[in-house]
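Here is an idea for our session: we take a single protein and study its fold together. To get us started, please write out a protein record for me. Start from the sequence, derive the backbone structure tokens from it, and show both lines together. Go ahead whenever you are ready, and we will take it from there:
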Amino acid sequence: MYLVTGGLGFIGNELVRQLRRNGKVAILDNKNRVAPCIDDLRNVPVYEVDITDGGMRDLIVRLRPERVFHLAAIHYIPECNANPERTLRVNVEGTLSVLNACAEAGVKKVIVASSGAVYADSETPLDENAQVAPVDIYGWSKAFTEDLCRWISYSKGLPVIAARLFNNFGPRETNPHIIPEILFQLRKSDVLTLGNVSPIRDYIHTTDTADAMIALAQADLSGFIAVNIATGTGVSVRDLVRILGEQLGRTLRIEFDQARLRPVDKETQVADISLLRKLTGWEPRLTLRNGLRQLLTFEGLL
């Protein structure tokens, strides 16, 4: 059986959707942020538990899943910055509790959602040996999490994969990240009020992310390893707006809003996915343009 913590969230619900094709799956989620339009998952067992609660350990030990995908976390940057203590409690201490429970339950492999946010700013593609230098509490929480994954793996013999996820987009978003924010504004106007539009990011569709995580879960890997999950291609926010305008047949204009600037940010974050390819043979299936077109259709904008 597969267990997905945070399985009702943005990436989690798509992961659950794909795992159902491969076998039995259950969800552990505190229902803090439930993705919309997931009625197709209504028959999947959901255990409403917070990963910081003691009941989580008892549940995992009772269920004894074969593989655990740990996605439960606080990951919206403004929320993390506003609540650093809570962010560390959930993302770091909560992960430690999940890992200990998995070791006790005899789980064969744990795939933990880490982030490209652990890396330093870089003009060149980031491989897994690139400098780890987060610039915000979210990035630090994931860097600390990876250290715990490495320690638990070595000390308890639990195979753990830290999946360094880059910028995800797709349907059923649960936080106002840049793409859903743009789509929200597009419903009202051709003028978009945005902050810094020059940063280049590696955007990956959630269906591809879920597919890559499953591929890693099925790979013959032991010990601890960190692996990038992305596309290997970068695009700026300005170019995102241009592509969306082309697909909608609308002339979009950007107005700068100083209040939307983050206190700290990175200019370029693009992944090198050579290791993921080597370990699994995985390749992204959706181009950015095709993924955005699917999203526009899902949102009723096309």
Notes: Residues 178-200+234-270+288-298 form a domain with the UDP-galactose 4-epimerase; domain 1 fold (CATH 3.90.25.10). The two ends are 38 Å apart (CA to CA). The CA atoms of residues 1 and 260 lie 43 Å apart. The mean pLDDT is 96.
